[in-house]
Design brief:
GO terms for molecular function: hydrolase activity, acting on ester bonds. The chain starts with a helix and ends in a 9-residue tail after the last helix. With 365 residues, the chain is of the alpha/beta class. The structure holds 2-acetamido-2-deoxy-beta-D-glucopyranose (3 copies).
């Protein structure tokens, strides 16, 4: 009881001070930047950071289909784990394309690309995770399954390997963010940081293998985002604050160091893969840095609940009865403990687009 009261006080104190993310610069020239590139399709592989409705098809009663999810997007829940739009939505808009439809929506139009991302998805297969004693995955639609969806789509979309390559040459691919859930499941299942660190090489290699596969299919522009500083997520801060010291941003130092380590391995692997494939642009998406830019002060409350908080037996999940929702999500970085707000995603997407655009092989207009 005492620790529960302490945790409530902790959350309350942090709720008082709002993050000031309105200071991030705005870049009105995005449309021209990406527009000049003339990408005709976008394909997204990933998890809840990018899912625009697949998981909701798999689980029609999921919380992402109910308010307050979607509250900032005309009060319309869509399956996005957010109060509104996600990074990929801003990327698609900046490319002058409509928002990507989820693959599992059988009635959807895929003229401008497909979103294969699924909430809870991992890079490693569920069987591989089980062998490592990691359980509790929210979906079986892991990266290999998402790749099989891509192949199935291509089998009707193009006639031969050469035809597919021709048809995909002006497409933009997002391979992730994926691979973050491995660590969520591991940590919330009680794994230590040292144990979780051992997962890194296989997660990175799995993502590289998936990237090789889409290159073989014809991808010529691929963005591979890394992980966020997980030690700054309210869900981690409330559950694991006893397991780590704080860094200067008042985030959990050891958990952030795991993200740094993982991102570094990912970048090294990307450089190698880039050298093997000089005609393809393989670009790292630095979500860690983009996220950190949003912090000036040292406070990280979520707008809605605290997310997977084991101290509360999950009762603090956004959307559960009695869990408070802030009235001004635009002033928060974090939405529900694990996922960011629309406003945060917008700023991060804008930074990401500016950062990656010079490295992409722009299709000529
Ligand atoms: C994943 O597949 C296994 C085996 O078919 C099944 O038992 C499990 O319920 C599935 N998990 C989810 C989240 O759908
Ligand atoms: C984290 O700290 C809690 C106590 O607050 C402890 O019960 C738990 O075992 C620790 N977990 C890890 C992975 O070190
Ligand atoms: C990646 O692909 C290589 C070559 O096919 C294979 O040997 C390796 O086991 C794969 N790695 C993972 C983690 O799947």
């Amino acid at each position: 009881m005492a620790s529960r009261a302490k945790a409530i006080l902790y959350i309350f104190l942090h709720m008082i001070s709002l993050l000031s993310i309105s200071q991030a610069e705005h870049h009105p020239s995005l449309l021209t930047l990406f527009g000049r590139c003339n990408f005709d399709k976008i394909f997204q592989f990933g998890d809840s950071i990018s899912d625009t409705g697949n998981f909701l098809v798999e689980n029609p009663l999921d919380r992402s289909g109910r308010l307050p999810y979607g509250v900032s997007n005309s009060n319309t829940p869509t399956g996005r784990y957010c109060d509104g739009l996600l990074m990929i939505d801003y990327v698609a808009s900046a490319a002058g394309l409509p928002l990507l439809n989820p693959y599992e929506d059988t009635n959807a139009d895929f003229t401008y690309g497909i979103n294969f991302a699924v909430v809870g998805a991992t890079a490693l297969s569920v069987e591989t995770l089980a062998r490592k004693n990691i359980f509790g995955a929210r979906t079986n639609s892991t990266l290999d399954v998402q790749l099989s969806w891509m192949s199935r789509y291509l089998s009707s979309y193009c006639k031969s390997e050469a035809d597919c390559r021709e048809k995909l040459k002006n497409s933009l691919f997002f391979m992730g963010e994926i691979g973050g859930n491995e660590f969520n499941y591991a940590f919330f299942g009680g794994m230590s940081i040292e144990e979780a660190k051992n997962l890194v090489p296989e997660v990175v290699q799995t993502i590289m293998n998936a990237t090789r596969e889409i290159i073989k299919l014809g991808a010529r522009n691929i963005v591979i985002p890394g992980n966020f500083p997980i030690g700054c997520l309210p869900s981690y801060l409330t559950t694991f604050r006893a397991n780590s010291s704080f860094d200067l941003n008042h985030c959990l130092r050891d958990y952030n160091q795991l993200s740094v380590y993982y991102n570094l391995q990912l970048r090294v692997a990307i450089v190698k893969l880039q050298l093997e494939n000089p005609s393809v642009a393989i670009v790292y998406g630095d979500l860690y840095f983009a996220f950190q830019r949003l912090f000036s002060p040292t406070i990280h409350p979520a707008c809605c609940g605290t997310g997977g908080d084991y101290n509360f037996g999950f009762t603090m999940f956004c959307g559960n009865a009695g869990v408070p929702v802030c009235s001004n999500p635009d002033r928060y970085v974090n939405w529900d403990g694990l996922h960011l707000t629309q406003q945060a995603y917008k700023y991060i997407a804008e930074w990401l687009i500016l950062n990656i655009s010079p490295m992409l092989h722009c299709p000529a207009s």
